[in-house]
Every structure is written in C-alpha cells, then in structure tokens.
Write a structure and sequence with these properties.
Layout: H1 25-41, E1 45-47, E2 57-61, E3 77-99, E4 102-120, E5 126-132, H2 133-146, H3 157-168
Antiparallel strand pairs: 1-2, 2-3, 3-4, 4-5
Bound molecules: zinc ion (ZN).
Residues 99-101, 141, 145 line the site of zinc ion.
C-alpha cells in the first residue's frame, strides 16, 4: 500500500525511531508499504519514518554495492531491520546526495568513506552490507533517518538557509 511521504520541514523527521523487537506480520506489512512507496515515487532507499512510522527499518538498493564494472544493474531492494553502521574507513568522502523527504535539493555531503550496515532481514536472519562511495553514503543516509537526522543537517548553515528560503517562496 502506497503511503504519503513525510516532507521537510515536518518536525517529525527529527524523531528518533524505536527498535523492532519482534519481526512479525505487522512489521512485514509495514516494510512492504515502504517498498510500494519507494517504487512508486522512485528512489534508491527509504527509511520507515519517511512514511511516518517511527520504527528502525530501512530499504536499500543492493545493486549499488558494486559499481566498479560500470554496468547498470536492475535495482535490488533489500530490507534491513534495526540497522547498525560500523565505520571501516573514517577518511571523509564527498557524495552528491538527495532525499525523498527533501524535495528539489541535491548537495554534497562528507561522510566516512567506507562503512558496513548490519541488521536483520524480514525473516529475522542477520544481514550485512558493506561499501564505499555512493553505496556507503546511502547506507549512512538511511540510518541517519532513524536517528532523526537529514542530509540537510550535514550542510553548512548558509547552504541550509538558502534552501529554506527557496522553499518558502513556493
Ligand atoms: Zn533520505
């Protein structure tokens, strides 16, 4: 089921999401709603709070994990429940990011270069994804949502206020 996206500057996007204690059918249904919404609006990842559910569930596009061969692969969405990020290489790396909840903005964000995401799939089995570059940034971006952070929070005050001004004019 398609759910409406929560858009910036809705203050609920700053809420910290709760861990999932039991992966039951209600969690799976919610995850499928996230997937429907992501596929409908078009994107490479989504976190539950972006549809107004404050649980620690994200969807990432695994096809971005290995971009070395330069071949465009079909999107391969995977669910991660209670994802945790481990930094593997903390050297800062810059990617151009955007967000379904922050319309009409793409901006350069510096984050640790290589990370791993560990959590559970919808069967409760452990999963682990690791990557750098764009994929590494995606992993960190989605977990940020669960902690009430947007990629805007990584930008300078100046860049952020320019965006806020532009959106107010609409
Ligand atoms: Zn986002």
């Amino acid at each position: 089921m398609l759910r409406p996206l929560v858009l910036y500057p809705d203050p609920v996007l700053a809420k910290v999401s709760e861990p999932v204690h039991h992966i039951d059918n209600s969690v799976r249904e919610l995850a499928l709603d996230m997937l429907d919404t992501l596929k409908t609006v078009g994107g490479i990842g989504i976190a539950a709070p972006q549809i107004g559910i404050f649980r620690r569930i994200v969807i990432i596009d695994k096809s971005l994990e290995d971009l070395t061969d330069d071949v465009e692969k079909p999107q391969d969405f995977v669910f991660v429940v209670n994802p945790v990020i481990t930094v593997i290489d903390k050297v800062k790396h810059i990617e151009n990011e955007g967000c379904l909840s922050v319309p009409e903005l793409r901006a350069k964000v510096a984050r640790p270069r290589r990370v791993a995401m560990e959590g559970l799939d919808l069967d409760g089995k452990p999963v682990r994804y690791e990557g750098d570059g764009y994929f590494g940034a995606c992993l960190q971006h989605e977990v940020d949502h669960l902690d009430g952070k947007l990629f805007l929070d990584h930008l300078s005050y100046l860049k952020r206020s320019m965006y806020e001004k532009k959106m107010k004019k609409k």
